[in-house]
Amino acid sequence: MAIIEVANLHKSYGETVAVDDVSFSVDEGEIFGILGPNGAGKTTTVECIEGLRQPDRGSVTVLGLHPQRDSVELRQRLGAQLQESELPGKIKVWEALDLYSSYYRQPADWNELLDVLGIADKRDVQYRKLSGGQKQRLSIALALVGGPTIAVLDELTTGLDPQARRDTWELIDQVRNSGVTIVLVTHFMDEAERLCDRLALIDSGRVAALDTPAGLVARADQEQRVWFRPSRELDDRLLTELSEVSDVRRNGERLIVSGSGNLLHAVTSMLARHHVVAHDLRVDQASLDDAFVALTGRRLDQ
Ligand SMILES: Nc1ncnc2c1ncn2[C@@H]1O[C@H](COP(=O)(O)OP(=O)(O)OP(=O)(O)O)[C@@H](O)[C@H]1O
Fold it and tell me: Measuring CA to CA, which residue among 204, 198, 218, 210 is closest to residue 33?
């Protein structure tokens, strides 16, 4: 069931067209990713969902509510990550959480959130004295402190070290498993691939593609290659007659099989049927990065 509906959204800032006819819907319980390069219009789109910006055209419905007309009700049910500048430097971690939880009818237990986020020992520290990663964790805690139905997380792991990123990803899995629908804005491919059930690729204010991470990769239809050394002599025709295979080459004892679709599965099941073992098996497979290039014509980091 759709919990967020965005239809034909347009938003310009003067001459700059930030969002140019964006439509998508987010289902209850999923982690929905909005992925795109800097300036693609991701933040503007989620700000329209949060009711912070008024669209020029198009409609946005969140939990059946109008984000601006019903902003008081929506704020109770939608948690958003704060921008860094939104907290006074001298506020202590516990004070911020206490203050924010007072806005909600049914707040979550913020002591538990601090524990899960690994900043329980920073409870009495002033905001300005936190490291970038700790500020980030606090902003996630503040997004969750109201016990929201939907959490909007923007640039979730920017500035975190690799271990903290992995911890945060686990936390987001837990949050989703507790029934919260998550909209995740990111420009990190690995994060999108790891966390999201579905993804909208946004480029220049438009949805370039919308699918599961695996679906996007498959849609880009990149050629894949499987390399291996067969345990015994193998007739090339056994490979070339597979519909997934487009080319077979030999390099000494090794076979290099090119193709598309579920190439690896097609090749390995054929080998199993013929009792051939594939030694030193290697697969070159397209990634979400490749898919982005194929679907938009440019790299995400450009
Ligand atoms: N308040 C504003 N006034 C004028 N232009 C703006 C404003 N906010 C955003 N823009 C412009 O609108 C376009 C889309 O910006 P937006 O922040 O929505 O993109 P984004 O995909 O979130 O980018 P980033 O990943 O860099 O945050 C950009 O060209 C940006 O410069």
Answer: 198
Is the per-residue pLDDT at 300 higher than 70?
no
Phi first, then psi: give them for residue 259, nearest 5 degrees. Answer: 170, -165
Going from the Cα of 13 to the center of ligand 1, the distance in angstroms, rounded, reads 9
Q: Ligand 1: residues within 6 Å at CB?
A: 13, 16, 18, 36, 38-44, 187
Give me ligand 1 centre to Cα 9, in Å.
Answer: 15
Write down the ipTM of this complex. 0.95
- What is the CA(40)–ligand 1 centre distance, in A? 7
**Contact between 253 and 217 (Cβ < 8 Å):** no
pTM for the predicted model, two decimal places: 0.80
* Tokens found for residue 99: 């203050």
Beta-strand pair 198-203/57-62: unpaired
Domains of the chain, earliest start first: 2-218 (3.40.50.300), 223-285 (3.30.70.980)
